[in-house]
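Write out the bound-state structure for magnesium ion.
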Amino acid sequence: TKPTVIIIGRPNVGKSTLFNRLVGKRLALVDDQPGVTRDRRFGDAEIAGMEFQVVDTAGWEDDDPESLPGRMRKQTEVSLEGADAAMFVFDSRVGLTPLDEEIARWLRQQKVPVVLVANKAEGKQGDAGIYESFSLGFGEPVALSAEHGEGVADLFDHLWPII
Ligand code: GDP
Ligand code: MG
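---
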């Protein structure tokens, strides 16, 4: 069976755009577990012949930081159990926010390998956020534009060794 890579990040960083970019027309098994379907989408992805299942999540899409340990986060944890790797997406134009830091802290406690993704990096507009993101401790980010497609193929080099 194919390895599974889960997309994680705060709202609006471009997780679903990246999912759609990776999956293209190859949609998508449905997870019909009650209460789970809404927050996760599965699709078959392929980069340069490397095939994997990708999972789009909405598990952190709750803008009240007080509720982070709640139901939605729980579902992200459940998703992570079956994952071979996580793509942790942030918005390189905005830079790191407190919620990004919170998710990063949580991810560092998980066993799954993490590929850091600096999205919205078309042009040079993400450069400051890209440098800032080294502080997260996940190594060099993959700078890309999910919307325009630039840099998406670079995910290959980061995912191939770990999935
Ligand atoms: P999610 O909430 O993390 O799933 O984010 P979405 O995929 O829904 O995207 C949030 C917003 O960011 C949308 O308006 C997208 O069009 C925009 N977006 C996503 N990827 C990019 C990108 O690479 N560059 C730019 N400029 N905007 C993007
Ligand atoms: Mg989304």
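---
The chain has one domain: 4-159.
The pocket of guanosine-5'-diphosphate (ligand 1) is lined by residues 9, 11-17, 119-120, 122, 145-148 (CB under 6 Å).
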